[in-house]
Amino acid sequence: MLFVAAVLAIVFAVDMLVAVVVGPWVKIPHASLLAISTLAVLGLIAGCAAYRISSLSAGGKAVAEDVGGEPVPPDTQDPALRQLRNVIEEVAIASGTPVPDIYLMPDEPGINAFAAGYSPSDAAICVTRGCLDKLTRDELQGVIAHEFSHVLNGDMRLNIRLMGLLFGIMALSIIGRQMTWSRGNTGIWDSEDDRNRLSAWFLIGIALMLIGSIGHFFGRLIQAGVARSRETLADACAVQFTRQTGGIAGALKKIAASAEGSRLQIANRHEIAHMMLGDVDHFSAWFATHPPLMERIRLLEPYFREQQLVELKAKVQAASAAHDGAMQPPRELPPLEWPGGPVIGAVVAATQVAAAPAATAVVESVPHATVSTRDTFTRLREAVRQPESAIAVVLALVMSRHQELRARQARLVANAFGDDVQSTASEFAVEMEALPPTSHMPLLSLAFPALKQLPQGRQQTLLETLDGVVGIDPLVGLDDYCLVRLLRMHLLEACKPRSAPVDGQKKLPACRDSVALVCAVVATYGANDEAAARRAWLLAMNQAFPGAAALWQALPLDWQAPFDSALDDLDRLMPAAKEIVVQSLLSAIRADGVVTPAESELLRVICASVHCPVPAHAVP
Fold first, then answer.
1. DSSP 41-82
2. Three-state SS for 120?
3. d(Cα 571, Cα 493) in Å, to the nearest integer?
4. Neighbour count for residue 374 (Cβ, 10 Å)
5. Both 137 and 231 in a single domain?
6. Which domain CATH number covers 248?
7. Are 154 and 38 contained in the same domain?
8. CA of 503: how far to CAs of 18, 175, 491, 496, 508, in Å?
9. What are phi and psi for residue 126, nearest 5 degrees?
């Protein structure tokens, strides 16, 4: 409504300007002149919006680079950057999403961050230097978890579209500013005959700037209206991901206490104001893109008082004055993994979102092979940081443990990628036998940034080879299916970010068969026998379609292809219908009171396929 009001106000203002300035000098009827003017303004707004959205078609990295973000290399030796990468990888594993592109705004001392992209597959997270210099590890983790909320809850696509729409309604202001600035280019206006034209040009520029201020006014209102509720939700999700309020609350307190706050210095800061962790500048209450800091802090810590914030400000100022001009001691290089080792770290990260019994079992089993398991995971984690070795790791993940099948799979890999990749993949496959199955998805998540760097032809070869390697085994395992399904989906969406599916318009009854099949897969792989699977399936179907008759059918051996089609069908459902489906799946998962690793992994794959976040407390 605000956007429509902005367009109407701009059209009316331009029409009045044309009627007053141009009308007396042309012989065209006023009605025709105003029609031409209206169409021209509408075309300008639509064209500028389309151009801006198109310029960001590369997804999150395009937005990050547009505001001066610099990519953080995977092999960085800078302690602060390594800690940033470690934290982002941990939260990605915990939230079940691929690791996003990581960017740093090196010249921004304020504490701020944003996530951008069309889907988790092309997401980028960008933080300011102030985040690295002023926040503790827990606080940085809270900020990153806040940004992952925007990744999972679909805010990023909305934010990029909003950037385009705002550019459209602010275009006249930009044009007017350029026209007035061109007055200083005296080379254009040297002749005597052009002086009168100069005055008219300058006045028209001023008029367009004034009219453009209408778009600026409404643009700020739109940003404020969209961003405030999403930021409150993201703060809550940060607590959900990290299982503690101190991290995100501490970061907000430091924003309030530090001199720079969350302000940015870049020229186009207002364009991304609605995407940031905190306000990029001082806004009035009407135009503030975020709720007041004290309000956000008190939602997290109800007993926090403003006097405590005053005391914190004094401490921050005293610390800043004491260290002003002093050389800081070098920061210690943080470990690559959480305390307790890489496997334990990955499992702890996962259990912060959903403490599945399987995760606890893995933690308890790790000490029996502590050294070898940790060393193996460390080597694999380093390997997935580079594109070619990441290929070998991913292929190793789906190789069979049976020597005869593995030999046939190795020949297929050698034909596709050569003997070197085949040899490395075979070595990795042997090493992976010591790892718990729950480490496979974290490795895939860590490998995704490197795999995105591969040329499209090589990505396609990888996907075809994975299909061939998995297909050699007559009984395709659920782990292998889930891994290949996720990788294919993420790579395809990363190649064409704007093509990532959006919420559809189909209603639930139109997808009844697809719901039945998806529930049957979840029920079958979560039950010990067919009777238990039937009970879980009936419970799920009754929740999705109350009172409707449902006939159980055992899952066929070749369920993978129909399951793929069913997930694609469910992705076209309306958001409310998707919610019903996910809740029905949770009923099937909880039917026997036990959540297996297969059920947890399958739920993540289904939610990713229908572009929904995994529900809070999805598993006990």
1. HHHHHHHHHHHHHHHTTT-HHHHHHHTT-EE--TT---HHHH
2. helix
3. 14
4. 18
5. yes
6. 3.30.2010.10
7. no
8. 42, 36, 20, 17, 13
9. -125, 130
List strands edge to edge, sheet with 70-71.
Answer: 70-71, 101-105, 124-128, 113-116
The whole-number mean pLDDT for each consecutive block of 10 residues of the chain, a chain of 620 residues, reads 88 85 77 87 88 82 89 89 92 85 92 89 92 92 91 81 83 76 53 61 78 81 78 86 88 86 82 82 70 87 83 73 50 39 34 32 40 78 90 91 87 92 91 83 90 91 90 77 88 79 81 93 88 91 88 83 92 91 92 83 88 67
Integer-rounded Cα Rg, in Å, for the chain is 28
Residues 6 or more apart from 43 whose CB is under 8 A from it?
Answer: none
Is 290:227 a contact under the CB 8 Å cutoff?
yes
Domain that holds residue 486: 372-499
Token readout for 340 is 């307790």
Q: How many CB atoms lie within 10 A of CB 209?
A: 19
Strand partners, 102: 125
- Domain count for the chain, please give it: 4
DSSP 427-458: HHHHHHTTS-GGGHHHHHHHHHHHHHTS-HHH
HEC-encoded secondary structure of 134-190: HCCHHHHHHHHHHHHHHHHCCHHHHHHHHHHHHHHHCHHHHHHHHHHHHHHCHHHHC
Contact in structure between 169 and 45 (CB atoms under 8 Å): yes
Instruction: Determine whether 147 is an active site residue.
Output: yes
User: How many residues appear in the chain?
Assistant: 620
In a domain, 33, yes or no: yes
Task: Identify the H or E element spanning 357.
Answer: helix 357-365
Handedness of CA 246, 251, 253, 258 (dihedral sign): positive
**DSSP helix/strand/coil, 596:** coil
36 and 166, same structural domain?
Answer: yes
Cα–Cα distance measured from residue 470 to residue 491, given in angstroms and rounded to the nearest whole number: 18
Q: Are residues 567 and 579 in the same domain?
A: yes
Same domain? For 415 and 556 the reply is: no
CA atoms within 13 A on the CB side of 123: 28
pTM above 0.85, yes or no: no
Name the H helices within 243-267: 246-257
Q: Is residue 556 domain-shared with residue 427, that is, in the same domain? A: no
Specify if 340 maps to a domain: no
- Catalytic position from the list 90, 139, 147, 231: 147
Q: How remote is the C-alpha of 526 from its chain's centroid?
A: 30
Roughly how many angstroms between the first and final C-alpha of the chain, as a whole number? 42
Other Cβ atoms less than 10 A from the Cβ of 136: the count is: 13
Quick check: helix, strand or coil at residue 328? coil
